[in-house]
């Protein structure tokens, strides 16, 4: 892992926190921090309960779109507003691992 990829923060749900406007405005420190924007996130609560770093670690769903916490109307609205493919990010994390995913995003200039 590159030193820079440590600064690329991925939320439990696959959102790139370090690209989020609230993170950049210092109104949220990312969901892995003590100062997340949404303290009542069901995805975060589930991931913490299960001991996951991201939802990509979950084996309950082969297709993450089947998870109603991750893929619901609020989640879809959130993805549209933030222009992010969180499920796609999680699928890629499953394929290559979290650190390789971060490195890929850094190389693409997405972090």
Poorly predicted regions are: 1-5
Report the end-to-end length measured between terminal Cα atoms: 14 Å
Q: Tally the beta strands.
A: 0
The helix/strand class is: mainly alpha
How large is the radius of gyration?
A: 13 Å
The main sheet comes to:
none
State the share of residues found in helices, binned by percent: 40-55%
Structural write-up:
The chain is mainly α. It has 5 helices and no strands. Helix 4 packs across helix 5. It is globular. The two termini are 14 Å apart.
Key attributes of the depicted protein:
111 residues, mainly alpha, 5 helices, 41% helix, globular, disordered N terminus
Task: Draw up the topology in text.
Layout: H1 21-24, H2 42-50, H3 73-82, H4 86-96, H5 98-108
Entry summary:
This protein is 41% helix and 0% strand. By secondary structure, the chain is mostly helical.
